[in-house]
Amino acid sequence: xxxxxxxxxxxxxxxxxxxxxxxxxxxxxxxxxxxxxxxxxxxxxxxxxxxxxxxxxxxxxxxxxxxxxxxxxxxxxxxxxxxxxxxxxxxxxxxxxxxxxxxxxxxxxxxxxxxxxxxxxxxxxxxxxxxxxxxxxxxxxxxxxxxxxxxxxxxxxxxxxxxxxxxxxxxxxxxxxxxxxxxxxxxxxxxxxxxxxxxxxxxxxxxxxxxxxxxxxxxxxxxxxxxxxxxxxxxxxxxxxxxxxxxxxxxxxxxxxxxxxxxxxxxxxxxxxxxxxxxxxxxxxxxxxxxxxxxxxx
Length: 298
Fold this sequence. Notes:
Layout: E1 2-6, H1 11-19, E2 23-24, E3 32-35, H2 40-44, E4 51-52, H3 59-62, H4 64-77, E5 90-93, H5 97-106, E6 112-116, E7 126-128, E8 142-146, E9 153-154, E10 157-158, E11 161-170, E12 173-177, E13 182-184, E14 187-189, H6 190-199, H7 204-231, H8 238-241, E15 244-252, E16 258-264, H9 274-284, H10 287-290
Parallel strand pairs: 1-2, 1-3, 3-4
Antiparallel strand pairs: 5-8, 6-7, 6-8, 9-10, 11-12, 11-13, 11-15, 13-14, 15-16
């Protein structure tokens, strides 16, 4: 069994493949291609027994503008639009400029978050406390989004949840949510947060159910565009030969309501601490991901 690393391959990824009996190769006889999204010529040649860790349409989730538009479109298609109300109100500029102006006129004291549509790891994100002073008409490829004014705090500190989600197939759509993850304000994982919240009288099970529902609805919302982009790559094997690990970033407000901030198509898998290594290697070695090793060519 061989794995070919293409672009990024972090220490936790390599450790899991070594432990699973894979050997690294630079040739074409690989069972798994892991790294950045492969170029068209590599995607075109993927065989039914090979696996790649990205879908061609991955940016339907990874770009904030497409993610938010896909969720908004799903809300319009359903009989219960409120079921998709887990993204803070947003405006994608310049297309939504007039809607933003109307929102600001109706809510003159609103604080906004300014985000580039295609950035990651907080790059370019700014808090806009005085939106009236903002030259919104000059902004391109920028999202202005309502700031959550009452985030849940622990020890006076704001935090968010990094939830790892594995999509193993588009046809049928098969999604797994890993039960452990990281609380990003310190080196803590979900169990420590769950223990803390339960000591305060809050039920972690209810929060986790909300998170899983949010993940499922997001994937249902993005699946049509994701599948269309994958089919357009021209290789029918890709619908089942591609898989992907996404990082969902979720913020809890003071009422324990979850808000989806973004979805990362290349969540940081490099392990900088023993906790990082423990969480990420166990997630990558989970049964639904380790089944990649069973689809190699004999």
